[in-house]
């Protein structure tokens, strides 16, 4: 019995790592294919919604996200999440080949620094406390600190979408990046919350109206945030190179998700001094990488 249990415990992380690596490569091709579809439709004078290459990039995004979901369920997040940096590097290589977007030496160094800094942030980020019930989730969602943070994010998103994006979105890549990244504060917690609430809604026992309302609220939040994010990703790809957008978007999205999770699940209470210093170093590395990418542009 002991001999049978050991290979099984090893096979799950290995399979999760394999799925995560494959998903990272698929995700790395997403922006490149969508950008290629946009360029092809622009040459024809039509909409990219009718371009097969653009749709292949969209399909890659869906498959990649499904792969990420599967990987998180068979391997620890601290192993799976850093592997997402492989998608950024693969996307840069693919963009150089398909789109002829060649990064200079500063751009390549900035891309590597962004990936390395993000991995340090992920590895040293505090781990989430286990939330196993809908009641615990409701308690976390009603926490004043998270409520204030969510309201600030919403106000900032309204400011960016209504006023800043129309005026400066096409000239400053950070506008679209900020919109897409801030939406991650809602997409990831909503995804995690749906898994918990669905147990009460679709379980064997009678479902309460409170659970159903929370489920529909989380589902609506997830759908709206994904659609808005998807729209502005394509707006960004119309104006900027795919490899630069992907690198900056990866690090900012990762940072906002870590912050939102830390506030929602109160992870910051378990943050040690060593991890704090390591995260500060990782954030500094990311900032340097983003500056180098901007300079290279």
Automatic annotation (TrEMBL):
Parts of the chain that traverse the membrane: 12-32, 52-71, 77-99, 106-126, 146-166, 173-191, 211-233, 245-265, 277-295
SUPFAM superfamilies, sorted: Multidrug resistance efflux transporter EmrE (SSF103481)
Coarse class of the protein's main subcellular location: membrane
Family from the record: Belongs to the NIPA family.
Pfam families per the UniProt record, alphabetical: Mg_trans_NIPA (PF05653)
Compartments where located: Membrane
Record has Transmembrane helix as a keyword: yes
One GO molecular-function entry: magnesium ion transmembrane transporter activity
Annotated membrane topology: Multi-pass membrane protein
Keywords from the named record: Membrane, Transmembrane, Transmembrane helix
InterPro entries per the UniProt record, alphabetical: EmrE-like, Mg_trans_NIPA
Source taxonomy: Eukaryota, Metazoa, Chordata, Craniata, Vertebrata
UniProt protein name: Magnesium transporter NIPA1
Entry annotated with the keyword Transmembrane helix: yes
GO CC annotation, single: membrane
């Amino acid at each position: 019995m002991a001999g049978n249990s050991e290979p099984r415990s090893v096979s799950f992380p290995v399979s999760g790592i394999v799925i995560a690596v494959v998903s990272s490569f698929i995700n790395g091709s997403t922006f490149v294919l969508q950008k290629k579809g946009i360029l092809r439709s622009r040459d024809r004078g039509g909409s990219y919604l009718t371009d097969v290459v653009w749709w292949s990039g969209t399909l890659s995004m869906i498959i990649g996200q499904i792969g990420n979901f599967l990987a998180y369920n068979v391997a620890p997040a601290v192993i799976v999440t850093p592997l997402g940096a492989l998608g950024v590097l693969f996307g840069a290589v693919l963009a150089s080949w398909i789109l002829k977007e060649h990064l200079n030496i500063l751009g390549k160094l900035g891309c590597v620094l962004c990936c390395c800094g993000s991995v340090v942030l992920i590895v040293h980020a505090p781990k989430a406390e286990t939330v196993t019930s809908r009641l615990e989730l409701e308690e976390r969602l009603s926490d004043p600190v998270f409520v204030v943070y969510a309201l600030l994010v919403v106000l900032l998103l309204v400011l960016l979408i209504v006023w800043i994006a129309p005026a400066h979105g096409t000239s400053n890549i950070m506008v679209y990046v900020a919109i897409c990244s801030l939406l991650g504060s809602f997409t990831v917690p909503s995804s995690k919350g749906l898994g918990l609430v669905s147990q009460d809604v679709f379980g064997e026992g009678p479902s309460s109206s409170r659970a159903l309302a929370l489920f529909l609220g989380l589902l609506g939040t997830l759908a709206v945030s994904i659609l808005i994010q998807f729209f502005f990703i394509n707006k960004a790809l119309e104006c900027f190179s795919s490899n630069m957008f992907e690198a900056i978007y990866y690090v900012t999205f990762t940072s906002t998700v870590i912050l939102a999770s830390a506030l929602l699940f109160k992870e910051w209470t378990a943050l040690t001094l060593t991890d704090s210093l390591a995260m500060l170093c990782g954030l500094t590395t990311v900032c340097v990488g983003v500056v180098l990418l901007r300079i290279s542009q």
